[in-house]
Amino acid sequence: MTSRAARAGIGLLTAATFMLFLDVTVVNVALDRIGTELGGGLGALQWVLDAYTVALTVGLAGAGPLVDRYGPVPVAVVGVAVFTVASVVCALAPTAGVLLAGRAAQGVGAAVVVPASLGLVAAAHPAGPARSHA
After folding, report:
1. Which of 107, 95, 103 minimizes the C-alpha distance to 47?
2. Which domain, by its residues, includes 10?
């Protein structure tokens, strides 16, 4: 991979990872409106926050071996696809239950992308200073 392509790849991975971790907290801004429009009470609102984080945390343990077995590129593609579809589900959720399922699916997609992004960095940069810099 050329140096320019490697830098572009790192930029894309950084942006994707930022988006995945931003999603942990960004929903806080919309909680009042979610509660008003979808109902479910305080418990449901708490799970709107926690479903993503729990799925992300639990999913990280199983996602690393997927990268080892299938490679970082296909795993990253699947993770981004799952995250994207789940984001659409969240955006169109008619009930708090559907939103919770979408948030959990987003967390699973994010859990798959995180170790895949690290595998992509390792594949794009040889061991040594270039990898450390990346």
Report:
1. 103
2. 3-124
Residue 131 resides in a domain: no
Domain count, the chain: 1
Is 72 contained in some domain? yes
Alpha helices in the chain (DSSP H): 3-25, 31-38, 41-70, 72-91, 96-124, 129-133
Measured from the Cβ of residue 79, the count of other Cβ atoms closer than 10 Å reads 26
From first to last of its 134 residues, the chain has per-residue pLDDT tens of 457 776 777 777 788 888 888 888 888 898 889 988 988 888 899 999 999 999 999 999 889 899 999 988 899 889 999 999 999 999 999 999 999 999 999 999 999 999 888 887 777 767 777 667 66
CB atoms within 10 A of CB 134: 16
Alpha-carbon dihedral angle through residues 127, 15, 100, 76, given to the nearest 10 degrees: -40
Residue 59, in any domain of the structure: yes
Does a structural domain hold residue 116?
A: yes
In the numeric block, the tokens 């948030």 are attached to 103
